[in-house]
Sequence to fold (409 residues):
Amino acid sequence: MSETLALSRIPLDDYAELLGAGEIEELRALAKPLRGRSIEMINSTAVGGGVAEILNRLVPLAEELELNIKWDVMTGGEDFFEVTKSFHNALHGAPYRASPRDFEIFLAYNERNRATLPLDAEFMVIHDPQPAALIDARKPGANHWAWRCHIDLSHPNRAVWDFLEKFVSRYDGAMFSSPEFSRQLPIPQYLFYPAIDPLSEKNQELQPDFIAEVLKRYRIDPQRTILTQISRFDRLKDPVGVIRAFRIVKRYFDCQLVLAGGGAADDPEGAVVLKEVLREADNDPDIKILELPTWAPLEVNALQRASTIVIQKSLREGFGLTVSEALWKKKPVVASAVGGIPIQIIHKHTGLLSHSVEGTAYQIRFLLSHPEIAAKLGEHGHQHVKENFLITQKLKRYLTLFLTLARAA
Ligand code: UDP
Fold:
């Protein structure tokens, strides 16, 4: 994977300017005993979604620290990703009746991937439910296996969780994005916040000309208020609810809505949801529905920076990396109080939380009529992200985990 997708390199020292030399020294010191030791990260998509976004930055940074890290993506057919997407929704609490066939498909693809992936690194990190059964490849005493869960498991579908738990319990540890997302497990659990890379193409500063050019390309008027939600077209991101909230706001303020989203290789539902969104938008010229290429970090960055307000009206959420991305850009954010969003949005301090279409519209209207408060929230949000959700902190956490696992053994 590291060979097939060119991950852009940013020298570690570039981060010192932003975060202080001490932060980088600390990273180097923690990495020293791990130099040259092997780490393998495995997830189910190379692009699209928050996990790929994080790995895309974490892997080259770990390489900068001279760790022998690689990132492999498991492969699966449409049937596998349909099952795992249903599992994903069910683990987030959606109604779902799993059939024995679903479990068979899940197990068959995991078995196939066990035969093709190396799975021989000293530290194996398996991301999310899709590849969880790769643990069957573990040889006794050979290496350390950690399961990184990016989703909210607080109210999972019983059958799906009972099935997964048997695999998860055999790891050496599990990492969750919030204490509330975890389950009772017989293995140690760790709190791992997701993180953004402030210097990546997604988050770096941009020239105003480039932002203007992106707006022009998508026929967005830079002179008018821009409300934006960037998300895969997924029902749990509630794009239809965003349009309904926009319609309420529009009665009071002249504004445009940007709903931008690409797909993810492991999400087969995108096309269906996009159709629902287009139907709801009903050719309203002020609703810009943008189908972005799966990998378009500079465009996403530009759209976030051009926004007056960023919305994340998810019905369920893992962490919601888009929120940190917007806060980093000092944007006022209105987002649902679900999943990891309240960790990022401290209500009335780093943004505004909402619980419904009407609530979302109300908070947007409030910010549009109080721009000075909106600007303050953005400033506080930026600081909150800087202190808690940057990739360097995340890397530090991984290094500490590897040292802990090695010592425990
Ligand atoms: N994203 C993107 N293009 C899109 C939609 C999303 O690059 O068209 C990125 C977004 O900027 C963020 C990630 O994908 O970095 C989404 O992560 P999040 O945690 O918000 O949601 P997930 O998709 O993982 O549920």
In short: The radius of gyration is 21 Å. The longest strand covers residues 255-261.
